[in-house]
Write a structure and sequence with these properties.
The protein has 403 residues and is an alpha/beta fold. It contains 15 helices and 14 strands. The protein binds pyridoxal-5'-phosphate. Pyridoxal-5'-phosphate (PLP) binds next to helix 5.
């Protein structure tokens, strides 16, 4: 086989479909978020970033930077090993306790990323609980799908947020078969939110474990930033809460929180935990500072929701088709991969607004979109400037306006 030709051919196909991913070469500017330098064509332009998952700009919060600096100065750069072999740093222990406290659970367990947390926790639970049936929401994140698949247990998929379909599946299983319902709180592409209470009611009725991915909610929802389950008063009913430190907490790393026995079980049997080196102490120190700070600053969450609502309103007034969402996520529909990429390029190169096109396979074909995530510090001025640019781009490319 001509391997090089094979690789090149596959890439050419992606380009033909308009689905080839091009990274924006950015340099974030601490103290100036959401602004960043964009390196392009041998030069540099300052742009406003509209698609960061550092939702609350914690990545530049001086408190978080101080937490990182202090831990690095005290402990050095790397952790020095897996958690079991010399890699457990005191900052990991403190952060796990902080995350357990955030979610009002007995224990927390850290992973190098949210992806690894889902992959490892789900596969370990699915593979080791005898005769397990995992019931998974149709729109679950790739890391959950892969974790469940890797666990090789029985699996059923319920239609997205469809309680009737979920109950049908629960009902059809033997009453004494172990079951786990795996779902997210905020779905990051459509910005909708799961009916957590009703899912917990069904879990109680059919004696199923509940596993929730609150990656797009931790830091942002609930009185202390523990997520939508906290906001909805359901946190105590969830068996396994999974989250990330890479989005609203502004750093990197993943975790689960739950009972002492469950966390100890995943710690002891989870291969993605056991065989991977611990996160650097600086990362744990920064995450620790971020979680603590966000617990006490609910006003940031209020402001965040206000900014998202304001952008939606401004888009609607301008006739730009945005999905009505109940969260901080503002999807603007284009519905065509090539147009979506072109709109994004025009916004970036002509107007210095950066929003990455979201194409297949992240979203289904025909629902290609620009996904805006305004932060608490995106100003009215930035929004007005963005909306004016969008109107021109929509005109130039003859993209459909809202009906
Ligand atoms: C980003 C994401 C993850 C993975 O978290 P990382 O910390 O980025 O690895 C997991 N679940 C969902 C829903 C996500 O969007």
């Amino acid at each position: 086989m001509d391997y090089e030709q094979f690789f090149a051919g596959k890439i050419a196909d992606l380009k033909d479909e308009g689905e080839y991913r091009v990274f924006a070469d950015l340099e974030r500017k601490a103290g100036r978020f959401p602004r960043a330098s964009h390196h392009r064509d041998g030069g540099v332009e300052e742009v406003v970033v509209w698609c960061s998952n550092d939702y609350l700009c914690q990545g530049q919060n001086p408190v978080v930077l101080k937490g990182m600096h202090e831990a690095i100065d005290k402990c050095g750069a790397g952790a020095g090993g897996t958690r079991n072999i010399s890699g457990t740093n005191h900052y990991h222990v403190l952060l796990e306790a902080e995350l357990a406290d955030l979610h009002k659970k007995e224990a927390g367990l850290l992973f190098s990323a949210g992806y690894t947390a889902n992959m490892t926790a789900l596969s370990t639970l699915a593979a080791n609980i005898p005769d397990m049936l995992v019931i998974s929401d149709a729109l679950n994140h790739n890391s959950m799908i892969e974790g469940i698949r890797h666990g090789r247990s029985q699996k059923k998929v319920f239609r997205h947020n469809d309680l009737e379909h979920l109950e049908e599946i629960l009902q059809a299983a033997a009453p004494d078969q172990p079951k786990m319902i795996a779902f997210e709180s905020v779905y990051s592409m459509d910005g909708d939110i799961a009916p957590i209470k009703e899912i917990c009611d069904l879990a109680d009725k059919y004696n199923a474990l509940t596993y929730i991915d609150e990656v797009h909610a931790v830091g942002m929802y609930g009185a202390t930033g523990a997520g939508v389950a906290e906001r909805d008063g359901q946190m105590h009913r969830i068996d396994i809460i999974q989250g990330t430190m890479a989005k609203a907490f502004g750093v990197v790393g993943g975790y689960i929180a739950g009972s002492e026995a469950m966390c100890d079980f995943v710690r002891s049997f989870g291969q993605g935990f056991i065989f991977s080196s611990a996160m650097p102490p600086g990362v744990a120190g920064a995450a620790l500072a971020s979680v603590k700070w966000l617990k006490e600053h609910n006003e940031i969450r209020v402001k965040h929701q206000e900014r998202a609502a304001t952008l939606k309103r401004k888009l609607t007034e301008a006739g730009i088709p945005n999905m009505e969402t109940v969260s901080h996520i503002v999807p603007v529909m284009v519905g065509d991969a090539k147009l979506c990429k072109q709109a994004s390029d025009d916004l970036l190169y002509k107007y210095n607004h950066y929003v990455q096109p979201i194409n297949y396979p992240t979203v289904p074909r025909g629902t290609e979109r620009l996904r805006f995530t305004p932060s608490p510090i995106h100003t009215d001025e930035m929004m007005d400037d963005l909306v004016a640019a969008l109107k021109e781009v929509w005109n130039n490319l003859s993209i459909k306006l809202a009906a």
